[in-house]
Amino acid sequence: METELQIACQQVLVEDNSVFSIQWTDLPPELATGMTPQRLLETYLEAIRRMTWGLIQPRVTAEGIAFRLLGRVPLLCFLSPEQKGNWLALRICGGLLVQRDQCDRGELAFSCETRPDNLVRVTLRLSDYCPLLLGSPRPSVVRRWLYRMTQATLHRLVTVRFLARLYRELGGTAQRVQTVRVQVQQGRNT
User: Fold this and answer.
1) For residue 1, pLDDT beyond 80
2) pLDDT grade for 2, boundaries at 50, 70 and 90
3) CB–CB of 110/44 below 8 Å?
């Protein structure tokens, strides 16, 4: 029987004008067998390559992971994955899309957690990220608008498509995908 897949989303600029973005969906236990944060990360990296038709190529090295445009220009660079409780976190350490004086801040994290109702919540969270498009801790209205219309929209679209694709690849079928706004963090919507 086909169902509706719900994906929870929130993207905000927090008080210091860093970005907080979270998306999750709840999977039935039969679809989530063997799902771990590490497997979720690996699936995400492959999905980035496929969804961008190879324009963005995640490269994994001993030092970390870099999302490279055309295999050359490092858009986002991360340190090696670090386990933090139920989360697998990639600390941002540079890249063209990060404010130069904020390269040592922010992380992309992945989680798979069994809920009391036995569903498995798979979550992607971007936090403390300072995008170059915002320019500074006090971005102008124009810079906030530009970020919202470009990078924030692309990030949300890719993440929602990733979660929907993950659900389908694990064997789920959905007549439609519905995004649901949630509030996890206070801030100004992006």
Assistant:
1) no
2) low
3) yes
Say if CB 17 and CB 189 are below 8 A apart.
no
**H-helix or E-strand containing 168?**
helix 153-169
Instruction: Please state, in angstroms and rounded to a whole number, the distance separating the CA atoms of residues 90 and 110.
Output: 9
Between the alpha carbon of residue 118 and those of residues 31, 32, 177, the distances in Å are 12, 10, 21
Return the closest-CA partner of residue 92 out of 115, 125, 134. Answer: 125
What are 69-107's pLDDT values in tens digits?
998 899 999 999 999 888 999 999 999 999 988 878 899
Asked if 163 contacts 172 with a C-beta cutoff of 8 angstroms, the reply is no
Burial of residue 28 (number of CB atoms within 10 Å: 0-12, 13-18, 19+)? middle
Burial tier of 143 (Cβ tally within 10 Å: 0-12, 13-18, 19+): middle
- In whole angstroms, give the CA distance from residue 173 to residue 149: 30
Count of all residues that appear for the chain in the document: 190
